[in-house]
């Protein structure tokens, strides 16, 4: 019965208790027995549990009796981090209602607001929930006022709850049944279903999580994916409880899964529309886009023999995460590796961590870069993801770099320091709005290349952890960028070259040279460490040679004896320098990449 289905998601900032509240809902509706229950049951990755964040969105079906009628509640869990905002938007598009969960000890944060606007744009019914009300530090009145200002609800509409103790869970379930509208859809119309997530199963291939908007999908039907026009057989369809439960068919309003023997994740795109091959629907569901990586970095194995294992590891991760892209590349300093594209810094960190845990691979990651558009003097546009791919300066007309619109929500005590940080990163303050007497939202336009490095860590330390940060991509703008190269004895080290703004190049070059001087071991000959822009050297440090005292045996006598020995030593050093090469230790690469 379509009238007894309720599809809803949970919108919350990281660490506001979303996964714990989902646990209580599952417990209260007896979806899981006590034996199956665990902390954060929907977060099944170790990393998710340790960091307290949701990385991969999940969906689960619950049954709930309300006034003698049985209702089917489909909870579509969403990741909270800004890197995964496209996945969040597709999960929201699959729902009719959203629980807005706000931590009563912290108040409203930036990502809550950006995901809330997504929900409002999709006409979702918003049910405000004030979580962690059992804590002594809960600021119920103050945070309730923030929610009322934000969504214009009444005070009595806000449900006080606690994911830990289970307070307010029944009220939440009743509100979902009473306030969230039933799905609209015609079971007899042509099939139209939205893919909001996919996971890889090593026996069955890709399992696509779908929400059916119109029509009916039966087992054995021939279906077609809109984005690539490919046709497949629906080998199995069903609903999502903690495990996959096979059914004969899914109808309009249902949330479930489809298995059609697809082996590569790139064929199942999040946000794609599935329709019937025989009787296709007229239009795809709006909002689909190919997810583009925002940050690029080289990943190299520390031991060159692990190259094939690294390739296998990245390929396996890509099966579960289609937004990860990679292609082989080589570097004179680091050997063979891969240039990988990520959605953001958290995504990059997670991939690195998973390679280490799941495949026992120790890797080096180069400086994260963004995608630059190079306009050449011939009028061509070249996309560059790696500084070593930059054309010669005399062929470049101008360079464009990606910009973002960022929103920072913070306590008013830290406004000055945060504005200084953003202006230091070439940002521009676009506006500020007071959300309450001591909380302010600052809007900036910033170059993405400045944010990928250490911006988030510095923002957190300046604001003592209070500031929350959210951004979305706004387009390309021309910028005065130069390629900064590091030379050792005149040879360029490609792994250390970076694209940086002209104004920052001198200080960055100076700092890199000083750092390398500390880290490169002394040789039998002098090593010149230089930072260069094109053919112009802008900074230099010298690692002095380890010198044997060849004049020790000369006691007394004529000075010409000593001079003769020193000249002989000098000639030997000169010859050694011509044929000797400088080994840069791994620790030096890692330390230079962490220069703040």
Could you describe the 3D structure shown?
With 596 residues, this protein is of the alpha+beta class. It has five domains: 2-179, 3-Layer(aba) Sandwich (Rossmann fold); 192-276, Translation factors (Elongation Factor Tu (Ef-tu), domain 3, Beta Barrel); 295-367, Alpha-Beta Plaits (2-Layer Sandwich), CATH 3.30.70.870; 373-479, 2-Layer Sandwich (Alpha-Beta Plaits); 484-492 and 504-593, 2-Layer Sandwich (Alpha-Beta Plaits), CATH 3.30.70.2570. The chain is built from 14 helices and 31 strands. The strands form six sheets. An eight-stranded antiparallel β-sheet has the order 11-10-16-7-8-15-12-13. A six-stranded mixed β-sheet has the order 2-3-1-4-5-6, with helices on both faces. Strand 27 (481-488) and strand 28 (491-492) form a beta hairpin.
Task: Write the CATH fold name of the largest domain.
Answer: Rossmann fold
Radius of gyration (CA) equals 29 Å
List how many beta strands DSSP finds.
31
Oligomer: single chain
The helix/strand class is: alpha+beta
Task: Please tally the helical runs, counting DSSP H or I stretches of 4 or more residues.
Answer: 14
Strand order of the largest sheet: 11-10-16-7-8-15-12-13
Kindly summarize this structure in a few lines.
This protein is α+β, with helices and mostly antiparallel strands. The chain has 14 helices and 31 strands. The chain has five domains: 2-179, P-loop containing nucleotide triphosphate hydrolases (Rossmann fold, 3-Layer(aba) Sandwich); 192-276, Elongation Factor Tu (Ef-tu), domain 3; 295-367, 2-Layer Sandwich (Alpha-Beta Plaits); 373-479, Alpha-Beta Plaits (2-Layer Sandwich), CATH 3.30.70.240; 484-492 and 504-593, Elongation factor 4, C-terminal domain (Alpha-Beta Plaits, 2-Layer Sandwich).
């Amino acid at each position: 019965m379509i009238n007894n289905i309720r599809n809803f998601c949970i919108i919350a900032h990281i660490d506001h208790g979303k996964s714990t509240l989902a646990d209580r809902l599952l417990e209260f509706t007896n979806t899981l027995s006590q034996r199956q229950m665990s902390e954060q049951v929907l977060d099944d990755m170790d990393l998710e549990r340790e960091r307290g964040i949701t990385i991969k969105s999940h969906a689960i079906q619950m049954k709930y009796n309300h006034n003698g009628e049985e209702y089917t509640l489909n909870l579509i869990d969403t990741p909270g981090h800004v890197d995964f905002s496209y996945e969040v938007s597709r999960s929201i598009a699959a729902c009719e209602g959203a629980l807005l969960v706000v931590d009563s000890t912290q108040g409203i944060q930036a990502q809550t607001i950006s995901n809330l606007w997504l929900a409002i744009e999709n006409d979702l019914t918003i049910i405000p929930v004030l979580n962690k009300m059992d804590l002594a530090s809960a600021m119920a009145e103050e945070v309730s006022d923030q929610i009322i200002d934000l969504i214009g609800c009444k005070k009595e509409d806000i449900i006080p709850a606690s994911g830990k103790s289970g307070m307010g869970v029944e009220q939440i379930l009743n509100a979902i049944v009473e306030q969230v509208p039933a799905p609209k859809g015609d079971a007899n119309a042509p099939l139209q279903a939205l893919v909001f997530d996919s996971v890889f199963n090593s026996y069955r291939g890709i399992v696509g999580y779908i929400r059916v908007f119109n029509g009916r999908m039966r087992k054995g039907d021939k279906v077609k994916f809109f984005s690539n026009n490919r046709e497949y057989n629906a080998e199995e369809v069903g609903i999502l409880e903690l495990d996959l439960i096979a059914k004969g068919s899914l109808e309009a309003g249902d949330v479930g899964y489809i298995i059609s023997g697809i082996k590569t994740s790139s064929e199942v795109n999040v946000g794609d529309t599935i329709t019937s091959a025989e009787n296709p629907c007229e239009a795809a569901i709006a909002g689909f886009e190919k997810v583009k990586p925002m940050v690029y970095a080289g990943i190299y194995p520390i031991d060159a023999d692990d190259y094939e294992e690294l390739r296998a590891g990245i390929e396996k991760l890509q099966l579960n995460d289609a937004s990860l892209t990679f292609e082989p590349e080589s570097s004179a300093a680091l050997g063979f590796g891969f240039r990988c594209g990520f959605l953001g810094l958290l995504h990059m960190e997670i991939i690195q961590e998973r390679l280490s845990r799941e495949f026992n691979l120790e890797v080096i990651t180069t400086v994260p870069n963004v995608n630059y558009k190079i306009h050449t003097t011939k009028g061509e546009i070249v996309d560059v993801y790696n500084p070593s791919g930059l054309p010669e300066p005399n062929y470049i007309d101008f360079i464009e770099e990606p910009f973002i619109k960022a929103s920072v929500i913070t306590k008013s005590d830290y406004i000055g320091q945060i504005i200084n940080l953003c202006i230091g990163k070439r940002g521009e303050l676009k506006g500020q709005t007071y959300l309450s007497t001591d909380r302010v939202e600052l809007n900036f336009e910033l170059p993405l290349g400045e944010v990928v490095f250490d911006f988030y860590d510095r923002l957190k330390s300046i604001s003592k952890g209070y500031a929350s940060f959210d951004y979305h991509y706004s387009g390309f703008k021309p910028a005065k960028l130069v390629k900064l190269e590091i030379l050792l004895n005149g040879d360029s080290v490609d792994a250390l070259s970076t694209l940086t703004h002209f104004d920052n190049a001198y200080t960055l070059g100076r700092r890199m040279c000083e750092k390398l001087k500390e880290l490169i071991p002394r040789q039998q000959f002098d090593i010149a460490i230089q930072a260069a822009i094109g053919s112009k050297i802008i900074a230099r440090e010298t690692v002095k040679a380890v010198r044997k005292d060849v004049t020790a045996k000369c006691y007394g006598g004529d000075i010409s004896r000593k001079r003769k020995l020193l000249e002989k030593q000098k000639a030997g050093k000169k010859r050694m320098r011509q044929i000797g090469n400088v080994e840069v230790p791994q620790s030096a690469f890692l330390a230079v990449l962490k220069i703040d």
